[in-house]
């Protein structure tokens, strides 16, 4: 298993010997916290507008966030190069908060998700390796997707449960979306909770750069989402002054009016169809794939997938790619949404094939 062995050989032994003592979480937490400290010390974590360009890495990341006209910036993002102390791994995430405590919720999930995901990934690998029938080489890509799915599902469930009990954050009427990716070698794992979006810029057969959506916006009017909400006695409808904007409502109240069907927090409507379960998918990165952009709906409400890819590809300096996309989206808000307060706008651009 090569690069994995150094990470989970100790975990495998510990889990095997002490499985009945519930110490796996403590071991994983200690390991992931140590890795986070090392990454921070070595400037491998980005939380504010800027870039990460590690010498020798195949990744180049540009990130930018802009406050809108609604108050505090409720968007945030994080990039963690050499995720899990692995040179071939990087984690990127963009979070879009909403509600009175939305900026606190978004930042809490941003800080909680990477180390929690790392713990669950390590423990999933360790548990799988204990299976005598396990053969990682038989179908490596499929097995990796299974591991990341398991890890993301456990992570998102744990974060949402912990957030509900958090004494310092009131997430009853507030929440956040989360769009995250893990690049592991030539594989990209995408996890989506909410209506932020990941879009790939790739070269077509005729040489043009085209946009390929990697996620589905989880809006309440999607058939499978609407069915779940209605079965849970929630309601989905548009307000008269917002035709086409479907929202989630409580059975007997004109609240909370969420424009997404999946989110962390928002516990007032969690019993009525809102979930924090991520959709996890994978994509193999080829020589034709140039970059992936993660962005909040502040971008996608006014900029199409192809427009975003064109803006990024036509930016001469990759360092300014995310900033230019955000600024173009801000101008589009003024042009297309006159009279409506500009939303917070954030984007992270991860470029491939950038080894120096």
- The CATH topology name of the largest domain reads Phosphatase 2c, domain 1
Unreliable stretches: 1-24
- Summarize the helix and strand pattern as letters: HHEEEEEHHEEEEHEEEEEEHHHE
Backbone CA Rg? 20 Å
Task: Characterise this structure.
The protein folds into 2 domains: 284 residues, PPM-type phosphatase domain (Phosphatase 2c, domain 1); 41 residues, no CATH class. It is 35% helix and 25% strand. The protein has 8 helices and 16 strands. The strands form 3 sheets. Strands 1, 4, 5, 6, 7, 13 and 14 form a 7-stranded antiparallel beta sheet that branches. A 6-stranded antiparallel beta sheet has the order 2-3-16-15-8-9. Strands 10-11-12 form a 3-stranded antiparallel beta sheet, with helices on one face. Helix 7 crosses helix 8. The N terminus is likely disordered. Its EC number is 3.1.3.16. Pfam families: PP2C.
